[in-house]
Amino acid sequence: MTTQSLPLSLEKTFESREELIAYIKKISPWAQGEASKIMGGRRAAEQSLSQIDPLHYAATRNYADGKVSRLSPYITHGILALEEVRLQAMTHVSCVQQIYKFLQELSWRDFWHHFAAHHPQTLWTDIEMYKTGWKSSDYADDLPADIAEGKTGVACLDQFIAQLIDTGYLHNHARMYLAAYVVHFRRVKWQAGAGWFLHHLLDGDIASNNLSWQWVASTFSHKPYIFNLENVARYFSEAVDTSPQNNQEINYSYSELTERLFHDI
Amino acid sequence: MTSNDALIWLHEYSLRLPTKLPLSVTSEQPKIYCFIWDDAYLRQQNYSLKRLVFIYESLTQLPINIFQGDTINILQQRPEKEIYIESTSYPPLQEKIKTLEEYKTVKIIPAETWVNIPANKKYQRFFQYWKNAEKQLIQK
User: Which residues constitute the domain of residue A219?
Assistant: First the structure.
């Protein structure tokens, strides 16, 4: 006969956020890093939901200060349902066409989950071959330490990495830049970068994250996604250092980059 | 707590009380909601402190118990016959559910539907999916 014991119930009331953080450090001492300023919970989710600006989303979403919702950590954890977001967005407009792009972007997550449900094996394996002229075996398995630590020497990317480590959140455009840098500029397997993002992102969702990395890598798209300094400067010049002298590695035209990064394509 | 109570296990991708429980849960039936702080599991997922704080902060705002220990051991020892779990596509959680099914009757709470996808459809690219989704979302 086995002895049954009641499981330990954990604390739920804290005097302050600092006290809650100290408690988590005590019950899970292995956890790395520090807490983000982004708050968890339904109250914070509702606060963020009340501040969305879906009407100006389409025109501004690619810019650092664009009207993106930043709701993804709450949606990922099921704190907010997509339908709640849709209903809130509808209160801002007189016609659903005004939030067409907003609804389309919200749908990406649903698509990734649909795809992953039918092809769970693709979450960590290449769906197709790289369309970069390189074979999968040409890519490194591990993420270099300078990337993990935000010391690549490319100023704008190091600032994005610092933000990822500090807050656990990144603008989608910045995620694409970092993913392209890891896979194409440094020729590291997308899996290494995907795992790194999943570790840090508060909205880390294996289907959305890993399939997006495959999209950038070209193992789940028709061609690799790349970017250059001009593109970063266009959308993020107010947010990060986009000076040519501090970003030499990405300061090329697209045709020069294609020549430098890819093999016979 | 009795074996006829409904036990609803919340995982890290379902940090809210389900809005719709399956019909097998009656309105009079006492409901017990719990989250299990399974340290070995959380560590295995390589979650950062940022993520753990976010999850815990969310839990403190819910009327639930937070138990500490191994998920399967705890759920296995519960007196409730049936355990309700919100649907998940996260493979490590699916594994846990599969293991739990060896000991308990597990009932999956379906995920809320964003768009209806015909059962025989397997979209390979987003814009194939969007053709169907667009009709439902834009004409809603």
Answer: 136-261
